[in-house]
Amino acid sequence: MVYKIFIVEDDKVISQKMAEFLSSWNYQVRQVHDFSKVMEEFIAFDPDLILMDITLPHLNGYHWTLEIRKFSKVPILFVSSANDDMNIVMAISQGADDYITKPFDLQVLAAKIQAY
């Protein structure tokens, strides 16, 4: 079985680096293309794990996490430059499973993903 990871990150450089790195670990990776259709893309891809940023175009990562949690228990790891405790608490309380602050080491990201 191929493990599928959905990347919800609007910084193209960070998103691409994560996608390339995770693909090298034989994960099937998809990046959001249209930030107004995150739910549609999530449903179509049916991932095993989501990497979610907080600050996104249109609606933020908290919103999308709440929407996903209405019908899915897929693990959600927040990846954000907002490293204050309030944002971490908010993410977890909205349904996130873990929180990684930017900048981060890709090996640490892989280790956290493998924990799920």
UniProtKB/TrEMBL annotation:
InterPro entries: CheY-like_superfamily (IPR011006), Sig_transdc_resp-reg_receiver (IPR001789), WalR-like (IPR039420)
Cellular component, GO, one term: cytosol
GO biological process terms, semicolon-separated: regulation of DNA-templated transcription
Superkingdom assignment: Bacteria
Protein name, as recorded: Response regulator
Gene Ontology molecular function: any one: transcription cis-regulatory region binding
Keyword Zinc recorded: no
SMART domains in UniProt: REC
UniProt keyword annotations, A-Z: DNA-binding, Phosphoprotein, Transcription, Transcription regulation
4-aspartylphosphate modifications at: D53
Response regulatory domain ranges (all copies): 4-116
Organism: Faecalitalea cylindroides
